[in-house]
Amino acid sequence: MLIRLSGPPQRTDVRAQVLKVFQENPKTGLSVSEVMAATGLPGSTVHNVTDVFTVAGWLSVSWRTGAARKARRPVKCLRLTALGTAAEWGEAPTPITMDGRRADLMRELLRWKEPHTVRELAEAMGISIASASSRLRAIRSCNWLDLSWADEGDTAALDFHAGCRYQLNADGVAGAREALRLYRSAQKRAEEQGTSA
Fold first, then answer.
1. Cα–Cα dist 146/153, whole Å
2. Which terminus of the chain has fewer Cβ atoms in its 10 Å neighbourhood, N or C?
3. 20-31: buried (b, 16+ CB within 10 Å) or exposed (e) per residue?
4. How far apart are CA 134 and CA 101, in angstroms?
5. DSSP character for 179?
6. Has this prediction a pTM greater than 0.90?
7. CB of 168 closer than 8 Å to CB of 184
8. CATH topology of domain 100-196
9. Alpha-carbon span 119 to 89, nearest angstrom
10. Would you list the domain boundaries of the chain?
């Protein structure tokens, strides 16, 4: 996956949690497995966050090999750079503007325990793939989704919508729940104002 940053990474709770692990171990190179153990986050989330930090220049990459390693292959080792030690977050993303369609999307994403494709999301909601993609755009811009890809040998991966799978990450679950809570609260106030008029 190609990552492009126009400035420092934006702060999210998950990113702050991962960065804290590296800041507490500035001289030690850590593997993704070690970061997963320290944070309790899934591997896909740790990979995504460390990839962003590497592109930003906050982490350097080396490879662990040798007799101390039981695995047959070298393991990617990530270490905090000087830039990462003095890391400053970019501006926070714009909050999501809620409407009934986005609320339906967030409810559907919260129901899923496994990653799903845009096509599966569209079918579950009874909407077009284009409409599902459009609704996902705002959630993706807030860094609330983890993306994964179909197996290399999967011919469906040639179709972007079939090959890319989405799932709310920890920030996304918290953000979607809060956005839905605020949306329900606003709807309730609007109904009360409508009945009192």
1. 21
2. C
3. ebbeeeeeebbe
4. 11
5. H
6. no
7. no
8. Arc Repressor Mutant, subunit A (1.10.10)
9. 34
10. 13-85, 100-196
